[in-house]
Amino acid sequence: MKFTTESLFEIKEQLKKKMKKSPLDTVEFEVIDPDLSSEFSGTMISIAGERYIYRPYKIWSDLAEVLKCRILTPERISDNTVLVRYKPLNITKSWHTNSGVDIKEKYGAGSIFSQIQKLEEPYFLNDYLRSLREINLDFRAKVLNLGINRGDEFTAFNYIFDDELVSSITFTGIDHCESAIKEANNRFKGFNYNFILGDIKNIESIPLEKQDLLITVGTLQSPDFNGKEIFRYLIQNILNPNGSVILGFPNSRYIDCEVVYGAKTKNYIESNMNLLIKDIGFYKKYLQQHGFKVLTFGKYYIFMVATKE
């Protein structure tokens, strides 16, 4: 297939039809080389007497994600055109549908989930580091992370804070997955790291000191417990009066080792952000009622940072 002046709608529909006929086959199509210009997507241009609608590589990358494909390395096939190739994702290969696994080890060492490296994803890395920069951490601060898993969120402190500050912080992580906690203990050998094997459903029974920063990424949204009640308890009983909060809300799924944009709820084939928006509204309102200034941003994960006015 060669696309010249077709609209993106026409291209998308043609690709969908081809993929429907051969769901597992790589789809290839020829388009104008995006390197030849730097116009807005959709701009009509003429090259060597032929008219094209110009689109940058980002458009082709985004379209691949919309069509649940991974984009393969494009190939130059003429002076003015490239071959774009899409490989459909295997929608059955996802840790979200990893049934038959003990819930406590669904996120454990050796699981599909354990292969995900969020700090290697540009949006997550950028937005999480921005979250950390938005807070003020003093020497000897205490940081608590609920659902710490193997400790990736603690690693990021070393990216933006100096060694002296990081070594003075007391880090505490809680997770109900024994193999993940074991891995975290092996990764962080410092005396200032403390990893607790525990179920946050019973947070009141876990002995915790007052904390200066509370972090939880994708944990309070679990259907296995009432995250809002746990959060209320933490704000009222665990967080210091001038403490800060970083919350992460998943707005993506992982399919065939690729992150795919959009929150997903049961009984919906496509993304449905109703529950995500409802959760964000609750936590923002609750924090503001307790005197916090709240900042919200992100893409594949929506981050909410709350600091005292």
Q: How is the topology of this model organized?
A:
Layout: H1 8-21, E1 27-32, E2 44-47, E3 50-53, H2 57-66, E4 69-71, E5 75-76, E6 81-88, H3 122-133, E7 142-146, H4 152-155, H5 157-160, H6 163-168, E8 170-175, H7 178-187, E9 193-197, E10 211-217, H8 227-237, E11 239-250, E12 252-255, E13 258-261, H9 274-289, E14 292-298, E15 301-308
Parallel strand pairs: 7-8, 7-10, 8-9, 10-11
Antiparallel strand pairs: 1-6, 2-3, 4-6, 5-6, 11-15, 12-13, 14-15
Describe what this molecule looks like in 3D.
With 309 residues, the protein is α/β, with parallel strands linked by helices. Strands 9-8-7-10-11-15-14 form a seven-stranded mixed beta sheet, sandwiched between helices. The chain contains nine helices and 15 strands. The radius of gyration is 23 Å and the shape is elongated. The model has no long low-confidence stretch (mean pLDDT 91). Helix 7 links the parallel strand 8 and strand 9 (193-197). The N and C termini lie far apart (57 Å). It folds into two domains: 8-88, no CATH class; 95-308, Vaccinia Virus protein VP39 (Rossmann fold, 3-Layer(aba) Sandwich), CATH 3.40.50.150.
